[in-house]
Amino acid sequence: MKSASPAKPSKLFSVLLAITAAAVLLSGSIAVPILYRPFYYLQIGPLELCERTGLSEEEIRTAFDAVMDFCTGRTDTFSTGVLRWSESGRDHFADVRELFLLDLQVLMESGLLLAILLLAGRLAKRRPARLLGRGPGFWAGAGLGAVFLIIGALAALDFNRAFTVFHTIFFPGKDNWIFDPAADQIITILPQAFFRNCAILILAVLAAGCAALILWDLLHKNKPGKASAGKT
Asked: What residue spans of the chain are helical by DSSP H?
């Protein structure tokens, strides 16, 4: 009896997989500091937030958790615990909420799309073609890694400038991200050093993911199956 025919290579399938994998990795890397709150808790001591603000660690955690609950859609009620906040400050965090929820939505949808593509390719007997001798994992990792290596290098040269440019791009025409500590005390427990560490974490996760994709592609031999025949 004749065996099943091998999967056929597809350039379009390869491109779609590369783009989708890159979207999963990028949105997933950004989601790490958003969802992993212990990353902030571990910095309360090193950043000397209790000493700088006169707040207890429990008050700081409560304030941070309240803001993050709002920004991640767990609640529609804005709060900063025992800290004062203004309408302008709340409006900024409402904008942040939109960006956070967009990232989490991209992560979920791109992850689902990646699973669908892999399943569809299996059912349709299609495999990703190797473009210039490399598979979609390589191009997703190399492309994304190269872009953010440049961005990371520029940010490292002048993080203050990068911080300002980031807010100019993602909050166009607004300046409510510039907080008055007297009106919006939440900024006292969210120093710029914390945001710098978030950027470092995102880049580290992204770099590790890119390296894993590239290594997987280099080690994976994407060869078509061999047809075999049997006797009836």
From this structure: 11-35, 38-41, 49-53, 57-71, 87-123, 136-157, 159-170, 192-219
Amino acid at site 42 = L
Tens of pLDDT along the chain (232 residues)? Answer: 455 567 788 899 999 999 999 999 999 999 999 999 999 999 999 999 999 999 999 999 999 999 999 999 999 999 999 999 999 999 999 999 999 999 999 999 999 999 999 999 888 888 888 888 888 999 999 999 898 888 888 888 888 898 999 999 999 999 999 999 999 999 999 999 999 999 999 999 999 999 999 999 888 764 544 444 444 3
Q: Which residues partner with 2 through β-bridges?
A: 229
- Provide the b/e sequence for 9-21 (b: ≥16 CB within 10 Å): ebeebbebbbbbb
- Rounded to two decimals, the pTM is 0.88
